[in-house]
Protein backbone atom coordinates (compact mmCIF):
# COMPACT_ATOMS: atom_id res chain seq x y z
CA UNK A 1 0.00 0.00 0.00
CA UNK A 2 2.72 2.49 1.00
CA UNK A 3 4.76 1.53 -2.07
CA UNK A 4 1.84 2.27 -4.42
CA UNK A 5 1.19 5.56 -2.64
CA UNK A 6 4.85 6.54 -3.01
CA UNK A 7 4.72 5.73 -6.75
CA UNK A 8 1.58 7.86 -7.11
CA UNK A 9 3.13 10.81 -5.26
CA UNK A 10 6.34 10.54 -7.31
CA UNK A 11 4.35 10.49 -10.55
CA UNK A 12 2.41 13.60 -9.56
CA UNK A 13 5.63 15.40 -8.59
CA UNK A 14 7.31 14.51 -11.89
CA UNK A 15 4.32 15.66 -13.93
CA UNK A 16 4.10 18.87 -11.92
CA UNK A 17 7.76 19.86 -11.67
CA UNK A 18 9.80 18.11 -14.41
CA UNK A 19 10.33 20.83 -17.07
CA UNK A 20 10.61 18.63 -20.23
CA UNK A 21 7.00 17.56 -19.76
CA UNK A 22 5.91 21.12 -20.45
CA UNK A 23 2.74 22.63 -19.04
CA UNK A 24 -0.91 22.02 -19.75
CA UNK A 25 -2.43 25.00 -21.49
CA UNK A 26 -4.10 27.57 -19.26
CA UNK A 27 -5.71 29.55 -22.05
CA UNK A 28 -9.39 29.91 -22.92
CA UNK A 29 -9.74 28.23 -26.32
CA UNK A 30 -13.52 28.22 -26.52
CA UNK A 31 -13.28 30.68 -29.43
CA UNK A 32 -11.94 27.84 -31.57
CA UNK A 33 -14.41 25.75 -33.56
CA UNK A 34 -12.02 22.86 -32.99
CA UNK A 35 -12.36 23.02 -29.19
CA UNK A 36 -15.21 21.02 -27.68
CA UNK A 37 -15.89 19.55 -24.25
CA UNK A 38 -12.53 20.76 -22.96
CA UNK A 39 -10.30 19.30 -25.69
CA UNK A 40 -9.37 19.94 -29.31
CA UNK A 41 -11.00 17.81 -31.99
CA UNK A 42 -10.22 16.60 -35.50
CA UNK A 43 -12.36 17.55 -38.50
CA UNK A 44 -13.48 13.95 -38.91
CA UNK A 45 -13.74 11.03 -36.50
CA UNK A 46 -10.27 9.81 -35.60
CA UNK A 47 -9.65 6.83 -33.36
CA UNK A 48 -6.62 4.88 -32.18
CA UNK A 49 -6.87 1.23 -31.13
CA UNK A 50 -5.43 1.36 -27.62
CA UNK A 51 -7.59 -1.09 -25.66
CA UNK A 52 -5.83 -3.48 -23.27
CA UNK A 53 -5.60 -6.31 -25.81
CA UNK A 54 -4.18 -4.05 -28.51
CA UNK A 55 -1.73 -2.40 -26.09
CA UNK A 56 -0.35 -5.77 -24.96
CA UNK A 57 -0.05 -6.86 -28.59
CA UNK A 58 1.82 -3.67 -29.43
CA UNK A 59 4.18 -4.13 -26.47
CA UNK A 60 4.83 -7.72 -27.56
CA UNK A 61 5.63 -6.60 -31.11
CA UNK A 62 8.09 -3.96 -29.91
CA UNK A 63 9.80 -6.37 -27.51
CA UNK A 64 10.29 -8.97 -30.25
CA UNK A 65 12.56 -6.54 -32.04
CA UNK A 66 13.54 -6.37 -35.70
CA UNK A 67 17.00 -5.26 -36.88
CA UNK A 68 15.49 -3.62 -39.98
CA UNK A 69 13.76 -0.99 -37.85
CA UNK A 70 17.04 0.92 -37.52
CA UNK A 71 19.90 1.59 -39.96
CA UNK A 72 22.76 -0.91 -39.70
CA UNK A 73 25.19 1.96 -38.97
CA UNK A 74 24.97 5.56 -37.79
CA UNK A 75 23.94 8.01 -40.48
CA UNK A 76 26.48 10.77 -41.05
CA UNK A 77 24.64 13.93 -42.04
CA UNK A 78 25.89 16.26 -44.76
CA UNK A 79 27.19 19.54 -43.34
CA UNK A 80 24.97 22.60 -43.72
CA UNK A 81 26.25 26.00 -44.83
CA UNK A 82 24.18 29.10 -45.50
CA UNK A 83 23.63 29.97 -49.14
CA UNK A 84 21.55 31.94 -51.62
CA UNK A 85 18.14 31.14 -53.08
CA UNK A 86 15.22 29.24 -51.60
CA UNK A 87 16.85 26.33 -49.76
CA UNK A 88 15.40 23.48 -47.73
CA UNK A 89 17.67 21.42 -45.49
CA UNK A 90 16.36 18.29 -43.77
CA UNK A 91 17.65 17.48 -40.28
CA UNK A 92 16.00 14.05 -40.23
CA UNK A 93 12.48 13.13 -39.10
CA UNK A 94 10.39 16.33 -39.41
CA UNK A 95 12.97 19.02 -38.61
CA UNK A 96 13.87 21.48 -41.36
CA UNK A 97 15.79 24.66 -41.94
CA UNK A 98 14.12 26.80 -44.61
CA UNK A 99 15.89 29.74 -46.24
CA UNK A 100 13.25 31.81 -48.04
CA UNK A 101 13.39 35.40 -49.29
CA UNK A 102 16.60 35.92 -47.34
CA UNK A 103 14.98 34.80 -44.08
CA UNK A 104 15.84 31.75 -41.95
CA UNK A 105 12.96 29.62 -40.68
CA UNK A 106 13.09 26.48 -38.52
CA UNK A 107 10.28 23.93 -38.77
CA UNK A 108 9.70 21.54 -35.84
CA UNK A 109 13.34 21.83 -34.73
CA UNK A 110 13.72 18.67 -32.67
CA UNK A 111 17.51 18.34 -32.44
CA UNK A 112 17.65 16.18 -29.31
CA UNK A 113 19.16 12.71 -29.05
CA UNK A 114 15.88 10.93 -28.29
CA UNK A 115 12.16 11.81 -28.66
CA UNK A 116 11.40 11.23 -24.98
CA UNK A 117 11.26 13.37 -21.84
CA UNK A 118 14.12 11.35 -20.34
CA UNK A 119 17.69 11.12 -21.72
CA UNK A 120 17.71 7.45 -22.68
CA UNK A 121 16.25 5.05 -25.21
CA UNK A 122 15.31 5.28 -28.90
CA UNK A 123 18.37 7.25 -29.98
CA UNK A 124 18.61 9.37 -33.13
CA UNK A 125 19.94 7.46 -36.14
CA UNK A 126 22.94 9.69 -36.63
CA UNK A 127 24.47 13.15 -36.59
CA UNK A 128 22.95 16.57 -37.26
CA UNK A 129 23.94 18.80 -40.21
CA UNK A 130 25.03 21.60 -37.88
CA UNK A 131 25.34 22.21 -34.15
CA UNK A 132 22.69 24.54 -32.72
CA UNK A 133 25.41 26.88 -31.49
CA UNK A 134 26.59 27.38 -35.09
CA UNK A 135 23.19 28.24 -36.54
CA UNK A 136 22.61 31.86 -37.56
CA UNK A 137 19.91 33.96 -35.95
CA UNK A 138 16.51 32.49 -36.77
CA UNK A 139 13.78 34.80 -38.05
CA UNK A 140 10.90 32.45 -37.19
CA UNK A 141 10.54 29.09 -35.44
CA UNK A 142 7.40 27.22 -36.51
CA UNK A 143 5.91 24.32 -34.53
CA UNK A 144 3.18 21.90 -35.65
CA UNK A 145 2.29 20.29 -32.29
CA UNK A 146 3.71 19.35 -28.92
CA UNK A 147 4.83 15.71 -29.26
CA UNK A 148 8.39 14.92 -28.19
CA UNK A 149 9.61 14.09 -31.69
CA UNK A 150 8.62 17.63 -32.78
CA UNK A 151 9.07 19.78 -29.68
CA UNK A 152 12.15 19.17 -27.53
CA UNK A 153 12.92 20.92 -24.25
CA UNK A 154 16.70 20.87 -24.64
CA UNK A 155 16.51 22.18 -28.20
CA UNK A 156 14.26 25.09 -27.20
CA UNK A 157 16.62 25.98 -24.36
CA UNK A 158 19.44 26.38 -26.90
CA UNK A 159 17.34 28.11 -29.57
CA UNK A 160 15.31 30.57 -27.52
CA UNK A 161 18.13 33.13 -27.57
CA UNK A 162 18.46 32.91 -31.36
CA UNK A 163 14.96 34.03 -32.40
CA UNK A 164 12.39 36.69 -31.65
CA UNK A 165 9.35 34.81 -32.99
CA UNK A 166 7.65 31.47 -32.38
CA UNK A 167 4.54 30.52 -34.37
CA UNK A 168 2.59 27.69 -32.73
CA UNK A 169 -0.92 26.20 -32.70
CA UNK A 170 -3.27 27.04 -29.83
CA UNK A 171 -2.04 25.94 -26.42
CA UNK A 172 1.52 25.04 -27.37
CA UNK A 173 2.81 28.41 -26.22
CA UNK A 174 2.37 27.42 -22.58
CA UNK A 175 5.14 24.84 -22.92
CA UNK A 176 7.48 27.52 -24.26
CA UNK A 177 6.54 29.97 -21.53
CA UNK A 178 7.36 27.38 -18.85
CA UNK A 179 10.74 26.94 -20.55
CA UNK A 180 11.59 30.64 -20.33
CA UNK A 181 10.40 32.06 -23.65
CA UNK A 182 8.78 35.46 -23.18
CA UNK A 183 5.07 35.48 -24.14
CA UNK A 184 5.67 38.51 -26.37
CA UNK A 185 7.74 36.31 -28.70
CA UNK A 186 4.99 33.69 -29.10
CA UNK A 187 1.82 33.84 -31.17
CA UNK A 188 -0.71 31.01 -31.00
CA UNK A 189 -2.98 30.23 -33.94
CA UNK A 190 -6.13 28.36 -34.83
CA UNK A 191 -6.73 26.58 -38.11
CA UNK A 192 -7.10 28.91 -41.12
CA UNK A 193 -5.55 31.90 -39.36
CA UNK A 194 -3.23 33.90 -41.60
CA UNK A 195 -0.39 36.19 -40.58
CA UNK A 196 2.63 37.85 -42.16
CA UNK A 197 6.04 37.77 -40.49
CA UNK A 198 9.17 39.22 -42.11
CA UNK A 199 7.18 39.71 -45.35
CA UNK A 200 6.38 35.98 -45.53
CA UNK A 201 2.80 34.71 -45.24
CA UNK A 202 2.14 31.90 -42.78
CA UNK A 203 -1.17 30.08 -42.54
CA UNK A 204 -1.99 27.67 -39.71
CA UNK A 205 -3.91 24.91 -41.50
CA UNK A 206 -5.66 21.70 -40.38
CA UNK A 207 -4.08 18.32 -39.69
CA UNK A 208 -5.54 15.03 -38.44
CA UNK A 209 -3.63 14.05 -35.32
CA UNK A 210 -3.64 14.57 -31.53
CA UNK A 211 -1.48 16.17 -28.84
CA UNK A 212 -0.14 15.68 -25.33
CA UNK A 213 3.15 15.29 -23.44
CA UNK A 214 2.09 13.76 -20.11
CA UNK A 215 -0.66 11.81 -18.38
CA UNK A 216 -3.17 14.63 -18.07
CA UNK A 217 -2.98 16.78 -21.21
CA UNK A 218 -4.31 14.65 -24.09
CA UNK A 219 -5.59 17.05 -26.80
CA UNK A 220 -5.22 20.06 -24.50
CA UNK A 221 -3.35 21.88 -27.29
CA UNK A 222 -3.97 22.02 -31.03
CA UNK A 223 -2.02 20.33 -33.85
CA UNK A 224 -1.66 21.75 -37.34
CA UNK A 225 0.04 21.94 -40.70
CA UNK A 226 1.52 25.14 -42.15
CA UNK A 227 1.39 27.02 -45.43
CA UNK A 228 4.49 29.19 -45.96
CA UNK A 229 4.33 31.60 -48.92
CA UNK A 230 7.18 33.90 -49.84
CA UNK A 231 7.91 35.97 -52.93
CA UNK A 232 10.21 33.26 -54.31
CA UNK A 233 8.40 30.05 -53.37
CA UNK A 234 5.42 28.47 -51.65
CA UNK A 235 5.95 25.56 -49.24
CA UNK A 236 3.49 23.21 -47.52
CA UNK A 237 4.53 21.53 -44.26
CA UNK A 238 2.13 18.78 -43.20
CA UNK A 239 3.23 18.33 -39.59
CA UNK A 240 1.86 14.98 -38.38
CA UNK A 241 -1.40 13.95 -39.99
CA UNK A 242 -3.54 11.06 -41.04
CA UNK A 243 -5.14 11.32 -44.45
CA UNK A 244 -8.31 13.39 -44.66
CA UNK A 245 -10.33 15.95 -46.62
CA UNK A 246 -8.31 18.84 -45.23
CA UNK A 247 -5.60 18.34 -47.85
CA UNK A 248 -7.94 19.14 -50.73
CA UNK A 249 -9.31 22.12 -48.78
CA UNK A 250 -5.80 23.48 -48.25
CA UNK A 251 -4.93 22.94 -51.90
CA UNK A 252 -8.08 24.73 -53.05
CA UNK A 253 -7.34 27.76 -50.85
CA UNK A 254 -3.55 28.06 -51.03
CA UNK A 255 -2.16 25.74 -53.69
CA UNK A 256 -0.20 25.06 -55.74
CA UNK A 257 3.02 24.56 -53.78
CA UNK A 258 6.56 24.40 -55.13
CA UNK A 259 7.49 21.78 -52.52
CA UNK A 260 5.45 19.77 -50.04
CA UNK A 261 7.12 18.45 -46.88
CA UNK A 262 4.69 15.60 -46.39
CA UNK A 263 4.49 13.17 -43.47
CA UNK A 264 5.54 9.63 -44.41
CA UNK A 265 6.52 7.25 -41.62
CA UNK A 266 5.74 5.82 -38.16
CA UNK A 267 2.44 4.36 -39.42
CA UNK A 268 0.59 1.24 -38.26
CA UNK A 269 -2.88 -0.17 -38.90
CA UNK A 270 -3.66 0.38 -35.20
CA UNK A 271 -3.29 4.15 -35.57
CA UNK A 272 -4.16 4.60 -39.24
CA UNK A 273 -6.15 7.75 -38.51
CA UNK A 274 -3.22 9.81 -37.24
CA UNK A 275 -0.34 8.83 -39.57
CA UNK A 276 -0.48 8.29 -43.32
CA UNK A 277 0.91 5.26 -45.10
CA UNK A 278 3.24 6.27 -47.98
CA UNK A 279 0.62 5.82 -50.69
CA UNK A 280 -1.60 8.30 -48.83
CA UNK A 281 1.38 10.65 -48.56
CA UNK A 282 1.58 10.80 -52.36
CA UNK A 283 -2.18 11.30 -52.64
CA UNK A 284 -2.08 14.11 -50.06
CA UNK A 285 0.70 15.78 -52.07
CA UNK A 286 -1.52 15.68 -55.15
CA UNK A 287 -4.51 16.92 -53.15
CA UNK A 288 -2.74 20.11 -52.04
CA UNK A 289 -1.40 20.78 -55.52
CA UNK A 290 2.25 20.05 -54.86
CA UNK A 291 4.86 20.20 -57.61
CA UNK A 292 7.71 18.35 -55.83
CA UNK A 293 7.19 15.96 -52.92
CA UNK A 294 9.71 15.57 -50.09
CA UNK A 295 8.68 12.72 -47.74
CA UNK A 296 9.35 13.47 -44.07
CA UNK A 297 8.80 11.93 -40.59
CA UNK A 298 11.27 9.14 -41.30
CA UNK A 299 15.05 8.77 -41.20
CA UNK A 300 15.45 10.03 -37.63
CA UNK A 301 13.91 7.73 -35.04
CA UNK A 302 12.10 4.40 -34.78
CA UNK A 303 8.58 5.07 -33.50
CA UNK A 304 6.73 2.24 -35.22
CA UNK A 305 7.19 -1.37 -36.30
CA UNK A 306 7.94 -1.05 -40.01
CA UNK A 307 11.49 -1.16 -41.37
CA UNK A 308 13.24 2.20 -41.34
CA UNK A 309 13.36 2.30 -45.18
CA UNK A 310 9.77 1.16 -45.79
CA UNK A 311 8.38 4.74 -45.89
CA UNK A 312 10.76 6.06 -48.53
CA UNK A 313 10.71 2.91 -50.65
CA UNK A 314 6.91 2.83 -50.80
CA UNK A 315 6.63 6.58 -51.31
CA UNK A 316 9.05 6.60 -54.25
CA UNK A 317 7.22 3.65 -55.83
CA UNK A 318 3.84 5.36 -55.43
CA UNK A 319 5.26 8.63 -56.80
CA UNK A 320 6.48 6.83 -59.94
CA UNK A 321 3.11 5.16 -60.36
CA UNK A 322 1.30 8.54 -60.27
CA UNK A 323 3.90 10.54 -62.18
CA UNK A 324 4.74 12.66 -59.13
CA UNK A 325 8.09 14.44 -58.89
CA UNK A 326 9.83 13.40 -55.68
CA UNK A 327 13.07 14.47 -54.02
CA UNK A 328 14.94 12.27 -51.53
CA UNK A 329 17.86 14.28 -50.12
CA UNK A 330 20.28 12.87 -47.60
CA UNK A 331 20.04 14.28 -44.11
CA UNK A 332 21.75 17.66 -44.32
CA UNK A 333 21.75 17.76 -48.12
CA UNK A 334 20.20 21.04 -49.26
CA UNK A 335 17.41 21.20 -51.81
CA UNK A 336 17.49 24.42 -53.86
CA UNK A 337 13.89 25.04 -54.87
CA UNK A 338 13.51 25.36 -58.62
CA UNK A 339 17.06 24.20 -59.26
CA UNK A 340 18.25 20.96 -57.63
CA UNK A 341 16.11 18.10 -56.37
CA UNK A 342 18.35 15.23 -55.18
CA UNK A 343 16.95 11.75 -55.77
CA UNK A 344 19.84 9.43 -54.90
CA UNK A 345 18.79 6.13 -53.29
CA UNK A 346 21.17 6.80 -50.40
CA UNK A 347 19.42 4.59 -47.83
CA UNK A 348 20.58 1.43 -49.63
From TrEMBL:
InterPro entries for the chain: Metallo-B-lactamas, NAPE-PLD, RibonucZ/Hydroxyglut_hydro
Pfam families on file: Lactamase_B_2
Q: Which residues form the Metallo-beta-lactamase domain?
A: 105-298
Q: Which Gene3D superfamilies match?
A: Ribonuclease Z/Hydroxyacylglutathione hydrolase-like
Q: Output the superkingdom of the source species.
A: Bacteria
Q: What is the name attached to this protein's record?
A: MBL fold metallo-hydrolase
